[in-house]
Design a protein that fits this description.
Strand content: 5-15%
Radius of gyration: 22 Å
Strand order of the largest sheet: 1-2-4-3
Number of domains: 1
Helix content: 40-55%
Largest sheet: 4 strands, mixed
Protein name: 3-methyladenine DNA glycosylase
Shape: elongated
Number of strands: 6
């Protein structure tokens, strides 16, 4: 239970806001320029296309729950959804608990369940990034998603790698992009309904998706946490594509050659390092979900027989 709000003076929150903008504009500004010039980037576009948080929304700074902004310029936040004047801090503006709708509550409940279930499992490090190879299995070069970039081993060489390895992808949002011939080769057949059961902390995509859960709770997620998750997702995406069958050396991405034993060992080491880095972010997001559910939770009610009904949050781990 939070004892009281954190009150930020105008100079303090202005500094935090500007630091956040500078941090994320390293990625947002080049993306906006590429988009204006109709240029595609096979690695970085993913962070703004597969993930639906617009650059302008990523640049926007939010303090998170239990924080009150003060000063004349704080009133600009009143024009944004989710904010209201704080009842106990004269002139203060903060996120409004009334704006935490039932829809947002359901998102927070699912995210909390997924994050805690994932964190409870040991990381599995034996997939070796073969999901990207399975997405182009038995396709001609002009049929693959990033057709402008050649396959390092050609189509037949790529197919041979898929056929020589055991594919162990348990992440549905990767598996659903497998080609039809590749799907039976996966040792798992994940579905959306399996997500809580199968998600595990060694998965690169599960760790990239921390960014998705952070922005899905926008504006209630502190922007520093959103940026931490985004930055991790950028670095993971780079490994994801370096280990892919595409030749991206011209863009400065040297391959992690998972078709070799040395490359697979290198990939697993990097994957384990990302799992360690993701763990505290996953915990911070789970804590945020719990706080938001508590924040928006109605008080206990008393039934006709005099028994107090315990709210759902009490049963969360």
């Amino acid at each position: 239970m939070v004892s009281g709000p954190i009150v930020l003076d105008e100079a303090t929150w202005h500094t935090r806001r500007e630091e956040h903008r500078r941090r994320v504009r390293r990625w947002t500004e080049p993306h906006v320029r590429r988009r204006a010039n109709l240029e595609k980037h096979p690695v970085l576009d993913f962070l703004f296309t597969y993930y639906s948080h617009r650059p302008a929304r990523l640049e926007r700074w939010h303090p998170g729950p239990d924080v009150v902004l003060t000063g004349e310029s704080a009133r600009e936040y009143l024009s944004w959804s989710g904010y209201a004047e704080h009842p106990d801090v004269p002139g203060g503006v903060a996120l409004d608990p009334a704006a935490f709708t039932d829809s947002r509550r359901r998102t927070a409940e699912f995210a909390h369940a997924l994050l805690t279930a994932t964190a409870s499992r040991p990381p599995r490090l034996s997939c070796f990034g073969l999901h990207e190879w399975a997405m182009v299995y038995r396709l001609d070069q002009d049929e693959v998603r990033h057709a402008a970039w050649p396959l390092r081993l050609g189509s037949s060489g790529t197919d041979a790698v898929v056929e020589s390895q055991s594919i162990r992808c348990g992440h549905f949002d990767a598996f659903r992009f497998f080609t039809e011939p590749a799907r039976p080769r996966n040792t798992l057949q994940p579905t959306r309904e399996d997500q809580l059961r199968l998600e595990q902390p060694g998965c690169l995509h599960a760790n990239m998706d921390l960014y998705k859960w952070a922005y899905k709770l926008d504006p209630f997620t502190p922007s520093e946490l959103v940026a931490d998750c985004f930055e991790l997702a950028v670095e993971i995406r780079e490994l994801d594509m370096r280990a892919s069958p595409y030749d991206l050396a011209a863009l400065g991405y040297e391959p992690v050659r998972i078709e070799t034993a040395e490359g697979r060992a290198d990939y697993a080491r990097r994957q384990a390092a990302f799992a360690r880095r993701a763990a505290p972010l996953r915990d911070r997001l789970a804590q945020l979900c719990r706080r938001l559910l508590e924040w928006g939770e109605p008080p206990d009610t008393v039934s006709e027989d005099g028994r107090t009904r315990t709210a759902t949050l009490r049963n969360l781990p």
